[in-house]
TrEMBL record:
Residues 265-294 are annotated as: Disordered. Signal peptide: none annotated. Keywords: Kinase, Transferase. This is Protein kinase-like domain protein. InterPro entries: Kinase-like_dom_sf (IPR011009), Meiotic_Drive_Suppr_Kinase (IPR052396). It comes from the Eukaryota. GO terms for molecular function: kinase activity.
């Protein structure tokens, strides 16, 4: 949501508030097969937090092997809400870690991260015994620079045909720069780019949404990292999808996946090329997919 910050020297510059709120995480609920939020489920969750039952449940979830798979079918509504709290916290942690790693390109290729926030969402009488438990009744969020623009997925509706190639090329360039910062993103898609008109017929492209991204592991080898990057084919998730989309408008987009990681992964290894080929076919035929619970 777009908000104004009180007391700012530039009240005419709104910011974007992104909340990681399990109650309204519709896609996350669908992915895990969890029913939509209800007040009854919330009350059961609050009661479990107050009694300490949620703390024990989360301890089991984090420490017992196969606990989730073995007990999933027995969970009550309060436990599902606790599980979702963990999931949205992971999204928050991932996104803030990525923005921290991208400090040098904030405001240039990604929005500027202004602050992280915590909002109390429980009733005032929902007292709990410790700070850790109180945190389970808060919603985390981030304040981002608001980029006034349009989605790359809708470029054909907002930009002249003559600019389509350059705008898509910009988006692919952003993917490459972010990858050079040691980031792998499982959610690269045209909807996650904002294109801003900056005057004189020029455009700037920003990437958003890093909840499903991760940093390169400290001990992750060049080969393992390259294979992970090739398997996700982040460039193809933009270029191939936009190529197919713009072809429906009679426009031939020029795009070919780069070989930036082929050498690290063992470019002469037939399996490396096979991974890229099969992934590219999937992206081109189906577009982006959502992670689901199995």
């Amino acid at each position: 949501m777009i908000v104004d910050l009180l007391g700012r020297s530039r009240p005419d510059k709104p910011v974007f508030l992104k909340l990681y709120d399990r109650r309204f995480a519709e896609q996350l609920r669908r992915d895990h097969g969890i029913d939509p939020w209800t007040t009854d489920a919330e009350n059961e969750y609050i009661q479990a937090v107050q009694t300490g039952a949620t703390r024990q449940f989360l301890h089991n979830l984090h420490t017992l092997p196969s606990f989730e798979d073995d007990t999933w079918d027995t969970w009550n509504d309060g436990q599902f809400e606790a599980f979702l709290t963990v999931q949205v916290d992971k999204l928050f942690d991932a996104e803030t870690a990525v923005y921290d790693a991208l400090r040098d390109i904030q405001g240039k290729l990604v929005p500027r991260l202004i602050a992280s926030v915590r909002l109390a969402v429980s009733p005032s009488n929902a007292s709990v015994g410790c700070a850790d438990a109180a945190g389970l009744l808060h919603v985390k969020g981030i304040l981002l620079e608001y980029i006034d623009g349009f989605s790359l997925a809708k470029v054909q509706d907002h930009a002249p045909r003559s600019e389509w190639q350059g705008i898509v090329d910009q988006a692919i360039g952003v993917v490459q720069v972010i990858g050079d910062h040691g980031i792998l993103n499982r959610d690269v898609r045209p909807d996650n780019f904002i294109v801003q008109r900056v005057g004189n017929g020029a455009y700037r492209t920003f990437m958003i949404d890093f909840g499903l991204a991760r940093l390169r592991g400290r001990d992750e080898s060049d080969r393992d990292w390259a294979k992970a990057k090739l398997n996700k084919d982040e460039e193809g998730a933009v270029g191939l999808v936009m190529k197919k989309r713009l072809a429906r408008e009679g426009f031939e987009l020029r795009f070919a996946c780069s070989d930036r990681f082929m050498e690290w992964a063992g470019g002469d290894d037939e399996s490396s090329g096979s991974v890229r080929s099969e992934k590219s076919k999937t992206i081109a035929s189906e577009g982006p997919s959502h992670e689901t619970r199995h």
